[in-house]
């Protein structure tokens, strides 16, 4: 048997892993730290310990309005992208589509095209034809960005599903809608659910599209945080960020339950 | 109704949505970039490409994206390799360290770096205490700050892309190399690295395009003085309100991204097929 890894290298690897994890998590830890600070100024490590900034956030009209806008858009995006993306994934999985390779590329293309390019186009198109931007602009915009994730998670789950189940239902005389509703949809349910949570997360956290399409009376949380950071950040920004991080952790736990994080990480 | 029609009907809402809300806007942007007061014009491109200021912005964007990509690859490869080879407990921690930042808003992560790198932040303070920097030393509004922030933002993409390839490698190849007398370093160099190359290249292309087009992090960490292409586009849209010029800049970015993405699409297609 060969000794796997030389001892000095093993120690070096440990140091490297710890430093990299530190690099990846440091900004999040810092934000949480700042949020419980007592002082008026942003400081890390925090001076003293208090929850006053959370109180501040929960009684501030601007933050609550932004949170409401973000939540509303994220929920609309979740519903639309799950329906549309799920249906598309089922069609793609069955593979009996004209130009199916091209169609799949089309569905995944918002994934690789930088959001800023899309944002410019969306803004210019919308203002030319529909006038001022509205909640609907962001709804559609975020749905486009989130769609590939739903398609991907649903395709991943379907690729492990039993293809003969639908065949069996067909021989037993089930109609098209029955087969879809009672066989295929239950088969891709974990993928749809994971995709829905991803879509929610993407819309809730998205900043670039929202910044380009922002309007004074429609500001999402990330845009609100961004403008505070540009001008006058105080620890309340950290508090609202911490609440968003907590929500992200919750979403990750749920996705892990549904799909398994390990599988997500190695796909 | 045939199976084909049924599938087409299922895919149709998505195709329509993408056509109207994704491809038409991009076409609109392309059209606007060559539109002038009297018909088609290339003036906006000429203006960009003849102004040393904008050429400087373009060069900075490309240079920073290259540096960020290189650093991400240098950290991402060993990290992904270790992730694929450690026990399940440590791997879970490493997965969390990659996924949690990935799913947190870029705005929040950049905020964290603003606190860490600011004048009284932890990083400059430690550097000063160690005697590595003098008293006036600050990191905010430097290109270094942009690189540090962007590496943290994009490292998860690189890591996952490499991990996808490494986790499918046959471990017995490495064992075979070791039994044949290869040292550990030689095994990595001659067996793992070449086999992981598709993941490294795909990850690098992705990180390069994402960092060349990123806006939030460079803008907040670099300030208005250090402009990148995306920030310059945003300025043309929101401040000077020169939309055709903004569109022209976006087209230049788009062309660069396509140049990088076409080999990416070919490579990922080969990997799946």
Automatic annotation (TrEMBL), chain A:
Which of UniProt's keywords are assigned here? Cell inner membrane, Cell membrane, Membrane, Transmembrane, Transmembrane helix, Transport
Main localization, broad class:
membrane
- Give me the segments passing through the membrane: 12-36, 63-90, 102-126, 138-159, 180-204, 236-255
The subcellular localization recorded is:
Cell inner membrane; Cell membrane
Membrane topology annotation: Multi-pass membrane protein
One Pfam family assigned to this protein is BPD_transp_1
The coiled-coil regions, if any, are none
Q: What is this protein called?
A: Spermidine/putrescine transport system permease protein
UniProtKB/TrEMBL annotation, chain B:
Please give the superkingdom of this protein's source.
Bacteria
Q: Where in the cell is it found?
A: Cell membrane
* Cross-referenced Pfam families: BPD_transp_1
Write down the membrane topology: Multi-pass membrane protein
Transmembrane ranges, per UniProt, are 57-80, 92-116, 145-166, 187-210, 243-265
Q: Which SUPFAM superfamilies match?
A: MetI-like
Extract the InterPro entries matched here: MetI-like, MetI-like_sf
**Which controlled-vocabulary keywords does the entry list?**
Cell membrane, Membrane, Transmembrane, Transmembrane helix, Transport
Q: Which residues form the ABC transmembrane type-1 domain?
A: 58-264
Gene3D superfamilies per record: MetI-like (1.10.3720.10)
Q: Where this protein primarily resides, as one coarse class?
A: membrane
Task: Spell out the family assignment given in the record's similarity comment.
Answer: Belongs to the binding-protein-dependent transport system permease family. CysTW subfamily.
Mind telling me what this protein is named? Spermidine/putrescine transport system permease protein
In its UniProt entry, the species of origin is given as Labrys monachus
């Amino acid at each position: 048997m060969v000794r796997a890894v030389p001892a000095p290298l093993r120690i070096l690897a440990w140091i490297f892993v710890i430093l990299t994890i530190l690099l990846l998590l440091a900004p999040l830890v810092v934000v949480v730290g700042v949020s419980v600070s007592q002082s008026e100024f942003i400081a890390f490590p925090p001076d003293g310990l208090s929850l006053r900034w959370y109180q501040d956030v929960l009684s501030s009209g601007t933050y609550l309005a932004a949170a409401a806008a973000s939540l509303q858009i994220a929920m609309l995006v979740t519903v639309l992208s799950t329906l549309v993306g799920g249906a598309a994934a089922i069609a793609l999985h069955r593979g009996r589509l004209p130009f199916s390779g091209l169609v799949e590329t089309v569905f995944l293309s918002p994934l690789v095209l930088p959001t800023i390019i899309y944002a410019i186009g969306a803004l210019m198109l919308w203002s030319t034809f529909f006038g001022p931007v509205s909640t609907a602009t962001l709804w559609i915009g975020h749905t486009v960005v989130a769609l590939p994730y739903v398609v991907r998670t649903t395709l991943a789950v379907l690729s492990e599903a039993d293809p003969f189940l639908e065949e069996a239902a067909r021989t037993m005389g089930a109609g098209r809608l029955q087969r879809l509703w009672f066989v295929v949809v239950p088969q891709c349910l974990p993928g749809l659910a994971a995709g829905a949570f991803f879509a929610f997360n993407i819309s809730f956290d998205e900043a670039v599209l929202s910044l380009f399409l922002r309007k004074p009376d429609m500001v999402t949380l990330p845009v609100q945080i961004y403008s505070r950071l540009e001008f006058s950040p105080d620890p309340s920004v950290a508090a609202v960020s911490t609440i968003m991080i907590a929500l992200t952790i919750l979403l990750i736990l749920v996705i892990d339950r549904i799909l398994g994080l390990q599988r997500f990480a190695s796909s | 109704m045939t199976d084909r029609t049924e599938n087409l009907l299922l895919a149709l809402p998505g195709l329509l949505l993408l056509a109207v809300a994704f491809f038409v806007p991009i076409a609109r942007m392309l059209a606007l970039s060559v539109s002038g007061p009297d018909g088609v014009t290339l003036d906006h491109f000429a203006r960009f490409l003849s102004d040393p200021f904008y050429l400087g912005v373009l060069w900075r964007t490309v240079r920073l994206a290259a540096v960020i990509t290189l650093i991400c690859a240098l950290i991402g490869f060993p990290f992904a390799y270790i992730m694929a080879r450690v026990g399940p407990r440590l791997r879970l921690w490493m997965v969390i360290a990659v996924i949690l930042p990935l799913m947190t808003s870029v705005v929040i992560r950049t905020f964290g770096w603003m606190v860490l790198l600011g004048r009284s932040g932890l990083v400059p303070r430690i550097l000063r205490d160690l005697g590595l920097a003098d008293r006036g030393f600050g990191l905010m509004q430097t290109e270094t700050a942009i690189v540090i922030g962007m590496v943290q933002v994009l490292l998860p993409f690189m890591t996952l892309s490499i991990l996808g390839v490494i986790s499918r490698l046959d471990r017995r190849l490495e064992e075979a190399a070791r039994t044949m007398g290869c040292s550990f370093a030689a095994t990595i160099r001659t067996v793992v690295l070449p086999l992981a190359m598709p993941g490294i290249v795909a990850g690098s292309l992705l990180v390069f395009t994402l960092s060349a087009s990123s806006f939030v992090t460079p803008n907040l960490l670099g300030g208005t003085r250090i402009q990148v292409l995306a920030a310059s586009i945003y300025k043309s849209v929101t401040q000077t309100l020169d939309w055709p010029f903004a569109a022209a800049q976006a087209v230049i970015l788009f062309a660069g991204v396509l140049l990088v993405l076409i080999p990416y699409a070919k490579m990922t297609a080969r990997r799946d097929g």
